[in-house]
Amino acid sequence: MSQTLTPEVTWAQRSSDSEPERNYLYVNIKAAEVPQADATLSITEKNVTFKGTSRKGVTYSVSLDLFAEIDPENSKVNHTDRDVELVLRKKELKEEFWPRLLESKQKMHFLKTNFDKWVDEDEQDEAGEDDYANNFGGFGGEGGGDPNAGAGAGGLGNIDFSKLGGMPGMGGMGGMPDLSALAGGMGGMPGMGGMPGGEGAEEDDDEDLPELEEAEGKKSAKIQEVS
């Protein structure tokens, strides 16, 4: 019979009254060595619930009733071999911090502040842009796995999508570039001289040919004059 534990949860936050992408929560669920296949994550506007079983047979289970609403569709997840990292976008744009993570004022022994990510409310601008969230893929996990995490790295495979607010089509995973746009732009890159298939390369070659023929004609004329 496996042992069931409540994992340690750490959190920090940023806030903004005008920029949604700077108005979010960092939440880390410290459930080590839990394969994606043995983990389930449910995220709604007011709740985050995680359950998973580690390779050592330890089951981790936690449910977080949040202080206020979040936007599941624009939140991100990264599942590593050490923990499950979440960047949860707050639904309401507001300059003030949430006074706490959870709806309940009761102190939870498993919940701690992430001091590595925490900044005071009035020092957010001085802290600069935080690109932590940009390392994550969208829900379902195409990006941002810990390179040292092993086979369990990447997005969480067993997310309960029925509770994520109707994500349309899962197209355009966070952080994935438009490959067709990149390919189209290769022709104009400095120092890439004459890459095959680059846009405009064929036109440039054609434009240069008349000048070459004209130069050859002048050279032949000079040879004839000398002889």
Please render the helix and strand layout as text.
Layout: E1 3-5, E2 8-13, E3 24-30, E4 39-43, E5 47-53, E6 58-65, E7 70-79, E8 84-90, E9 111-113, H1 124-127, H2 179-184, H3 201-226
Parallel strand pairs: 1-6, 2-9
Antiparallel strand pairs: 2-3, 3-8, 4-5, 5-6, 7-8
In terms of structural class, how would the helical and strand content be classed? Answer: alpha+beta
- Number of strand segments: 9
Q: Shape from CA axes?
A: elongated
Distance between the termini: 103 Å
CATH-assigned fold name? Immunoglobulin-like
- Count of DSSP H/I helices: 3
Strand order of the largest sheet: 7-8-3-2-9
CATH architecture: Sandwich
**Which value, in Å, is the CA radius of gyration?**
27 Å
**Mean model confidence by pLDDT:** 73
Share of helix among residues? 10-25%
Low-confidence stretches: 139-157, 161-210, 218-227
Largest sheet: 5 strands, mixed
Number of domains: 1
Q: How large is the share of residues in beta strands?
A: 15-25%
SSE order in H/E notation?
Answer: EEEEEEEEEHHH
CATH class: Mainly Beta
Structure in words:
- Residues 200-214 have a biased composition (Acidic residues).
- It holds the Pfam family CS.
- Belongs to the p23/wos2 family.
- By secondary structure, the chain is of the alpha+beta class.
- It has a single domain, classed as Immunoglobulin-like, CATH 2.60.40.
- Helices cover 16% and strands 25% of the residues.
- It has three helices and nine strands, in the order E-E-E-E-E-E-E-E-E-H-H-H.
- It has a five-stranded mixed beta sheet, with no helix packed on it. The chain has a four-stranded mixed beta sheet with strand order 1-6-5-4, with no helix packed on it.
- Strand 7 and strand 8 (84-90) form a beta hairpin.
- Mean pLDDT is 73; it is low at 139-157, 161-210 and 218-227.
